[in-house]
Amino acid sequence: MSGEKTEQPTAQRLKKAKQEGQIGRTPDLGAWFGMLAASVMLPRTLSKAMEHAEEMIAKVPETIADPDPGKALAMLKDGLLSAAWTVLPLALTMMAVGIAAAGAQGGIRVATKLFMPKFNRLNPWPGLKRMLGPHALWEATKALFKTAVLGAVLWMTMKDIVPQLMSAGRLPLTALLGIVTDAALSLIRAAAVAGIAMAAADYFVVRRRTQKQLRMTKEEVKQENKNAEGDPLIKAQIRARQMAMARNRQMADVPTADVIVVNPVHVAVALRYEPEKGAPRVVAKGKGPLAAKIRELATENRVPMVQDVALARALNSGCEVGQEIPAEFFAAVARVLAFVMSLKAKGSAAGLHRNPNPTPAMT
């Protein structure tokens, strides 16, 4: 059926979906990577926190002995700054991990269209469909699996630490704290690794679901391609304007030409020769009305015109405006330029002249 969405989304459709915030991503990926990064940063953060706490505690007796409000406020300020500088690396690391995770799942883009009010969002039916559809089933399965995996990780971690805690009476307090800290970090890291694996699976499911939602019908693809290519009438108008601009540029270069080779009525080719720039160059050419306009401008600007039927036809069909003439035309054009130079030496170059050595028919 033509209404079935069987086609992959086009680049334009994907771009529009990103602008509207419709990107296949899961927030769990950034959260679990952040937890893993935090488990790496926590030992150093806690060590720094303990050092600052010891420094603060050492200052307490001095403050009590001399209860000056100014000193007390200064100590509080130092404590707050120390706490901020201690936590800052951890916070920056987690923020960087979150941004990197978002970027890896389709880029970072502020979807401004999501802030626009849409009354169809007040319709409860789409929400009920999500609650009772495949999406809800996947979310429920994911929640159960997540609970089971985290429970298994917790059990495996605790079964190793419980025997040590049972004999904690024989251990000093520092050793006990070390055991508890190591166990907590191991638990966090194991949970983070398991969470990342689950988040990766969730990402592929969400991305596949999003791609399915963005699929298009054959008619939608045709319409989008038509829009991308543009309306034929508008394209024709653009081409007409471009051709008009090209003709105007040609006409502006006619007064700078050294000679106009004509046929004598139907074809006109304007040539300019600058030895330091290479071979003679075609600055304008045309047939019919365009040729008449070139001859008119040549007359107004006293540019010599030389009648050479075969050469005019060959130059018009074998050369493009703005390009140097091909090597096969060098000899014929050189004869025309030499003839024009002889006319200029006599002071009678302007106007239409017949080439005394016309070019033979060229193929």
TrEMBL record:
InterPro entries: T3SS_substrate_exporter, T3SS_substrate_exporter_C
Protein's UniProt keywords contain Signal: no
Keyword tags: Cell projection, Cilium, Flagellum, Membrane, Transmembrane, Transmembrane helix
Residue ranges of the region described as Disordered: 1-21
Gene3D superfamilies assigned: 6.10.250.2080, secretion proteins EscU
SUPFAM superfamilies found in the cross-reference section: EscU C-terminal domain-like
One Pfam family per UniProt: Bac_export_2
Regions crossing the membrane: 83-104, 176-206
Protein name, entry field: Flagellar biosynthesis protein FlhB
Originating species: Actinoplanes ianthinogenes
